[in-house]
Amino acid sequence: MMTTLEVSLRSGRCRGKMAKGKDTLRTTLFGKSFKNPVWVASGTFGYGEEYAELYDVSKVGAIVAKSITLEPRLGHPPPRVVETPSGMLNAIGLQNVGVDNFIKEKLPYLRRLNTRVIVNIAGSSINEYVEVAKRLNGRRGIEALEVNISCPNVKAGGIEIGADRGQALKTIAAVKRASSVPVIAKLSPNVTDITAIARAVEDAGADGISLINTLVGMVIDVHKKKPALSNLTGGLSGPAIRPIAVAMVYKVARTVDIPVIGIGGIMNTENALQFLLAGAKAIQVGTGNFINPRAPLEIIAGLKGYCKRNKLSNISKIAADFEG
Ligand SMILES: Cc1cc2nc3c(=O)[nH]c(=O)nc-3n(C[C@H](O)[C@H](O)[C@H](O)COP(=O)(O)O)c2cc1C
Questions:
Q1: Residue 109 C-alpha to ligand 1 middle, in angstroms?
Q2: Residue nearest to atom 31 of ligand 1 (CA)
Q3: Distance, CA 10 to ligand 1 centroid (Å)?
Q4: What residue owns the CA closest to ligand 1's atom 10?
Q5: 230: CA distance to ligand 1 center in Å?
């Protein structure tokens, strides 16, 4: 006699039945379970406090905190942000409270939220990355580190690490040695071949790869006859960069075995689906938070609806249906 499960499997009902369950968005990456694959990107969500005034931020799958360096940084002087067609250019310059203040003042709040917290770290040298990772190591409530080797707006420690295979490998390997939590390497699109950097960080032991950070851009104020940003150039983000990001995620997901997290111009469910179909296991909303703070919640609801309509037992099954 067949069991109910066997009957369901034979009739195909199981797929549909499970799709009604609560956990269609539950996502397991680097051995950790996330309530959904919709995360918020570093530098666009602060440390969560401001957005908590607008909605229950514990609904997002993970909060990636603003990049943290060893010492507090003031960042670049204004103007630091300018609007561009379908996007924005920023040169904040890694303004942050520094790792010790982060541990004292920000982490206790983040830890109380009922979601995963990923801490993004940056530095001007490999030693600085390692020191930040060491100070964070063993702190309760940190699920993973995201290593920013891709900031286009700082003189040292940004893209020149992320654009060099050897430097990228050394930095990620050193952070891995200093940390007991999973390490995600955040890659820059300002490179000739992103798959070469992806392979290097995988070889270094990275547990995941997130991409993309911003693209270097410049806006000139023709009336003042000078660059619109005090830093002269900045990082371009928003819908304008989405097709570049989708192409890079697609290529990297086919190059490495570790999970890929897609970032770049995600504003709504359809945008998020593009990244998931391209092979990303999770996505991060960045500039989208500034335009519609509730975008992550809308995407979570949209992905649930997608699973239901397509009878997917879990969103992770989506890439199997991709014909690209
Ligand atoms: C104002 C601003 C600040 C950012 N700060 C950081 C940062 O501190 N660390 C980091 O890794 N990425 C930072 N980013 C990059 C975003 O996390 C994201 O990778 C990028 O903006 C592309 O995604 P989007 O088009 O959805 O914004 C910042 C982006 C913006 C717009």
A1: 22
A2: 287
A3: 47
A4: 42
A5: 18
**For residue 194, cis peptide bond before it (omega within 30 degrees of 0):** no
Q: How much is the pTM?
A: 0.93
Residue 27 neighbours by CB under 8 Å, 6+ apart: 33, 34, 36, 37, 61, 281, 282, 315, 316
Selection from 44, 36, 39, 80 nearest residue 238 by Cα: 44
Q: Which amino acid is at 295?
A: A
Each residue of 117-160: pLDDT tens digit?
999 999 999 999 999 999 999 999 999 999 999 887 776 666 77
Cβ of 66 closer than 6 Å to ligand 1, yes or no, is: yes
Condensed to tens digits (0 to 9), the pLDDT of residues 18-34 reads 445 569 999 999 999 99
- Secondary structure (DSSP) of 51-73: HHTTS-GGGSSEEEPPPB-SS-B
Cis peptide before 227 (omega within 30 of 0): no
Q: Which residues are catalytic?
A: 151
> Measured between alpha carbons, how far is residue 134 from residues 31, 99, 130, 149, 244 in Å?
21, 10, 6, 17, 34
The pLDDT of residue 21 is: 54
120 lines ligand 1 (CB under 6 A): yes
